[in-house]
Amino acid sequence: MNQTSNNEPSKLPKKELFTSSGFILAAIGSSVGLGNMWKFPYITGQHGGAAFFLLFMGCLLIVGLPVLLAEMTIGRSGRRNAASSLYHLTGKKYWGILGVLFILTAFLIMSYYAVVAGWTLHYTLESFTGLLFSEDADYKTQFLSFASGYLPIFWQAVTIVITGWVIARGVSSGIEKFNKILIPSFFVILLVLMWRSLTLPGAGQGVDFFLRPDFSKLDAESALIALGHAFFSLSLGMGCMMTYGSYVNKKQSLGGATWAIGFGDLLYAFIAGLIVFPTVFSFGLEPGEGVGLAFMALPAAFSKMPLGFLFGGLFFLLLSIAALTSAVSILEVPVAYAMERWNWSRKKTAVIVSMVCFLVGIPSALSVGGVLGSWQPGGKTIFDWVDFSTAYILMPFCGLVVTLFTGYIWKRAGEEAGLTGFWYRIWMFLLRFVAPAMIILVFLYFMGVISV
User: Fold this and answer.
1) Which among 444, 447, 413 has a CA at the least distance from the CA of 428?
2) Distance (Å) of CA 390 to CA 110, 281, 396, 397, 415
3) Which residues contact 172 (CB under 8 A, 6 or more apart)?
4) What is the pLDDT of residues 349-374, one digit of tens each?
5) Please, how many CA atoms are within 13 Å of residue 392, restricted to the half-sphere of its CB?
């Protein structure tokens, strides 16, 4: 079969399209996730502060953005879901089969991501109502008590309902409008929280910890961790940007969009550091507690802060927005696939996929201290296994598929991306040699095959 030509619009399915600003906001919403609010400050502090941030920027430039551009280019040219785009650009069925892994990855991620997003919604309500905070409260016990019950399933369902409702409304009336409202609100809340954290007593110590570069702490492990975070923070390897790319107008500059998305991701990570580190140091907390930082340590800080219920509520609202905008992009991947695969309406597909995703995610919700928490095959809970298999196996593999497909198989990538000459050669060099090698190294490192 010959390659599908971009000049044959009659052979392409009719698609709803983003506006230029709507696409960039939706893509930024996808890349703005929960991990940057607690994971990024922690790994930054462990690996040299500003030195690690500079390393993260470098990894974003040489791997993250080239792969991001490749995913969006495939999506826009294919004008189909992640699996079908790979097939229709080559006519080779095995590329379509590989593309199904993107759908599976997004579906599995959504099944447990909705659980964590539900936690943020619960804590937002508890903070604004003042129910979260009490004198001498043990916030670790409080979180574990919440996670061990059945209430997380309710909040998981709320997350799925909100996300499914947005997707059912369509690309322009649902996804685009949702992000146009939430992303500006998100950055306003970011700035308010940054102001509050920077005006706390002792905040300067946290700023110094975050921004003073310590290059002595950088090593090979730092580079791999920075690369992994750059890759995952852009929502790469799960079909989100490929799916969103299929809704992009041909007049949209993908190169410009790539820079805008990368800048938005960097800005969020930077401001997140200026929120978390000053707060942590002002109240003598440890920044290296992972999930516990957000749900156990920081509530203790907000409880001692003037108007803590307000700023605590804003913090968890911030997390909720980050979770929901990312969740919309993740759920859209299997929804887009099912719509095209079985020719269902968008509303019907959104309902069915959302319900199945909710049911599949229930074991993850019950395994974080709940009735399934004691069942830990291989030393991991169900939640941990789904997280591990998607983040460290499926996502790197799918990212590798994108680099090899764009760098070696698909010959019209440069034309679709709008790159020629020097910039095209740089892009191809990064996709053919640098990105695959780096992705493989990260994969082997997190799998424990290599150590540095």
Assistant:
1) 413
2) 10, 33, 9, 10, 32
3) 16, 17, 18, 19, 22
4) 999 999 999 999 999 999 988 889 88
5) 14
Euclidean distance between CA atoms 298 and 283, whole angstroms: 9
Task: Please enumerate in sequence order all residues whose Cβ is within 8 A of that of 262, keeping only pairs 6 or more positions apart, or say none.
Answer: 60, 61, 64, 65, 68, 234
Quote the strand ranges of 322-404, DSSP E: none
Report DSSP letters for 2-35, one per residue. PPPPTT-GGGSPP-----HHHHHHHHHHHH--SH
Please answer whether residues 290 and 42 qualify as being in contact, where contact means their C-beta atoms are separated by less than 8 angstroms.
Answer: yes
Tokens of 175: 């996804």
Task: Quickly count: other Cβ atoms within 10 Å of residue 141's Cβ.
Answer: 10
What's the rounded Cα separation, in Å, for the pair 410 and 414?
Answer: 9
Under 8 Å between Cβ of 279 and 292: no
Tell me the domain boundaries of the chain: 15-446
| The residue to which tokens 């590798």 are assigned | 400
Q: Which two tokens stand for residue 339?
A: 């719509």
Considering all CA atoms of the chain, what is the largest pairwise distance in Å, rounded to the nearest integer?
Answer: 70
d(C-alpha 117, C-alpha 329), whole Å = 14
* C-alpha torsion angle, residues 399, 400, 403, 409 (rounded to 10): -130
User: Which residue type is seen at 32?
Assistant: V
d(CA 294, CA 331): 24
Higher pLDDT, 8 or 423: 423
* Mean pLDDT to the nearest integer, 239-248: 95
Identify whether the C-beta of residue 249 lies closer than 8 Å to the C-beta of residue 171.
no
Opening angle at CA 228, ends 207 and 166, nearest 5: 90
Write down the pTM of the prediction. Answer: 0.92
CA 374 to chain CA mean position, Å? 29
Q: Which of 211, 144, 225 is nearest to 441 (CA)?
A: 225
Q: Note the CATH number of domain 15-446.
A: 1.20.1740.10
C-alpha 54/C-alpha 137 separation (Å) is: 38
Tokens of 230: 């750059």
Tokens of residue 451, six digits: 């150590």
* pLDDT tens for each residue of 298-344: 898 898 888 989 999 999 999 999 999 999 999 999 999 999 999 99
